[in-house]
Amino acid sequence: MSEDELFTPRRPLALAMDFVRAGAWGAARAAAAGDGPIAQDIVEWHRLREGLGTPTEVLLFLRRNPDWPGLPYLRRKSEPSFLTASELEVRTFFAGMPPQSAAGALALARVQDAEEARLSAIAGWRSYPMTGALQADYLEAYGEALAPHHAARLDAMLWQGAKISARRMLPLVGDEVRAVAEARLAYADRAGDVAEKFEAVPEVLRSSPGLRHARFEWMLAKGRRDEALALMREASENAAALGEPSAWAGRRRQLVREEMRSGRFAEAYALAAPHHLVDGTAYSDLEWLAGYLSLRLGEPARALGHFERLDANVTSPISKGRAGYWRGRALEAMGDTAGAMAAYTEGGAYQTSFYGLLAAEKAGLPHDPRLAGDETFPSWRDAEFRQLSVFKAAVLLLAADDLDLSERFFTHLSERLDRTGVGQLGDLLMALERPHIQVMLGKRAAQAGLEVPGPYYALHPVAEHVHPVPTELVLAISRRESEFDPVVVSGAGARGLMQLMPGTARDVSRDLGLPYGRDRLLSDPRYNATLGAAYLRGLAERFDGNVVMMAAGYNAGPGRPVRWMERFGDPRKGAIDVVDWIEMIPFNETRNYVMRVAESLPVYRARLGKDPHPVPFSKELVGSTLLPLEQ
């Protein structure tokens, strides 16, 4: 692909994508031919993900494009077609990945020897929802082998919420197992006869994990919170009693924070610690919560254990910075000054993150010069990734104005690149003037532990304009609100670069004496930023230029930080530690939002050639660094 082709404004693939959206596959492929085989494979990728390919088509596509995004889904959607494929096709297909569906497991079983087939059929039976017809096929072919696993299948379907598949299993199980399942279904459906269904369950089975979880969810839905808490505590004795610890994790995190905000730290810890997870986001969050609560309870050694487990489970700058800072806090509370400094130094290596900045300040580290974003990489024109089909597809999609899918291909490509490759790809996207995809690339790389500040904190043309508040704030808010996507519309109706609600935009337009244009909120990023910056000026005046309150007000509405200060105290006046105040914010989105905006300010100051820290970061969180500018 030549450099001229990279910068071509529109390609034949654009028309092909219109046909794809209409489901006109033949016309789509014909239109895509003008852009060559890669464009035709983009059409084919869509078609196969609809489950419309033959086994031969699927295998040929996977051979041509083994590194494209979304292949696990494509494979899963394609598995039913292999029920009628040849033995060679089936074995070739499943050599790349084991079955992901009931149809796939049955297809594989049909070409295996007797014992392998039995194991594949049992695995599919115990794991996946299926249609009534497919269930009949399973029972006809492997009924005797599956009979001992009917109860396990029913239990799995109920945990997955696959109620239709679960109900099909009721005639196949014994009376006691059926009674438990019917009670679980009644609780899940919020039926009026839950008491009768529960009474029908033999007493010895009333504490079975699935039924206990169904009752727990029902209690919360009915406002019976204290009973639900008691049930969770009872079930948290061990992983077996929970059944599926991950199914409890979301509610556990919610309830722990509710108890924490009410000052019931011991009760919160008793919920947080026995989560019985082994990894994942919920594991990390609950380990952090347990550590934080231990510190509040005067148990720093116990806190350190939780923070160390957090550290071992995470890779992103945000999480590594958090783990390092809180390990330092625990060690400091234990009187281990040297250990605390080492932990702060480790956390302070992640200065694009909220807690990494606090850790760096504690360790006395200088600002990381790489955050200015002027790091140089070899020319993207010489990058090896330019030869990959996934890269060529990403560029063609960008030219076809399919920005979402182009972003998906670019960010997927980044998963196979080293840090230099990410930097080169970021440079290309900067040359293409695509700050949104730069940010998404930077975020995906950061999640994998590759921090490249240039794309991670991309600049946007709004930085070239004069605003009534500091430019770094406009950039930080825009990056957090839309990730610099000028045409994104939220589920709530917020629009464009700074995610303005139409009513707010109309009011601000009137105050500025500007004509209001709803469509301009998406078509004109500068107009959107003008209104957003003016709204920020009002927040700056209301909250004395404090980033924590302004960010909370922009995200949750200006009245909410006022109410939270009334409840928890005003951190600007020392009534509560600002870090504790932020962690007490009731909304997960707003709590995360405040941290992400605050951590962006030093980076964007560095990118704009300013002093990253006009005051220490901890002082900025309680200070007034974002006062309105004189116009």
From TrEMBL:
<dbReference type="GO" id="GO:0008933">
    <property type="term" value="F:peptidoglycan lytic transglycosylase activity"/>
</dbReference>
<dbReference type="Pfam" id="PF01464">
    <property type="entry name" value="SLT"/>
</dbReference>
<dbReference type="GO" id="GO:0004553">
    <property type="term" value="F:hydrolase activity, hydrolyzing O-glycosyl compounds"/>
</dbReference>
<dbReference type="InterPro" id="IPR000189">
    <property type="entry name" value="Transglyc_AS"/>
</dbReference>
<dbReference type="InterPro" id="IPR008258">
    <property type="entry name" value="Transglycosylase_SLT_dom_1"/>
</dbReference>
<dbReference type="GO" id="GO:0000270">
    <property type="term" value="P:peptidoglycan metabolic process"/>
</dbReference>
<comment type="similarity">
    <text>Belongs to the virb1 family.</text>
</comment>
<dbReference type="InterPro" id="IPR023346">
    <property type="entry name" value="Lysozyme-like_dom_sf"/>
</dbReference>
<dbReference type="GO" id="GO:0016020">
    <property type="term" value="C:membrane"/>
</dbReference>
<dbReference type="InterPro" id="IPR008939">
    <property type="entry name" value="Lytic_TGlycosylase_superhlx_U"/>
</dbReference>
<comment type="similarity">
    <text>Belongs to the transglycosylase Slt family.</text>
</comment>
<dbReference type="GO" id="GO:0042597">
    <property type="term" value="C:periplasmic space"/>
</dbReference>
<keyword id="KW-0732">Signal</keyword>
<feature type="domain" description="Transglycosylase SLT">
    <location>
        <begin position="469"/>
        <end position="570"/>
    </location>
</feature>
<protein>
    <submittedName>
        <fullName>Tail length tape measure protein</fullName>
    </submittedName>
</protein>
